[in-house]
Amino acid sequence: MRDHARTCLDLPPEAGMPEGVLNVVTGDGPGTGQALVDHPLVRKIAFTGSVATGKLVMKRAADRVCPVTAGWAENRPSS
Fold it and tell me: Where are the strands (E) in 1-79, listed by range?
């Protein structure tokens, strides 16, 4: 996963996106996520994960009026 993230980060500069606009952060989950959602310099959050965690992210982001884009990736078989 980390090698894939690095490959994705090579593409934006080739498309003319300034350095630092797109960042991929990996970490332990709760601690890393909370630090990012609460940080005043983070101006947009894109999240992919469980519905339960997504709700927590969106609630914390709402407290400081930070926009969130969420994708739900539940680990269960499709019906």
Answer: 45-49, 68-72
**pLDDT tens per residue across span 34-53:** 898 999 999 999 888 888 88
Phi, psi of 61 (to 5 degrees): -65, -35
* This model's pTM is above 0.85: no
* Phi, then psi, of 22 in degrees rounded to 5: -115, 125
Three state DSSP letters for the chain: CHHHHHHHHHHHHHCCCCCCCCCCCCCCCHHHHHHHHHCCCCCCEEEEECHHHHHHHHHHHHHCCCCEEEEECCCCCCC
The closest of 8, 61, 2 to 33, measured between CA atoms, is 61
Per the CB < 8 A criterion, the answer to whether 45 and 25 are in contact is no
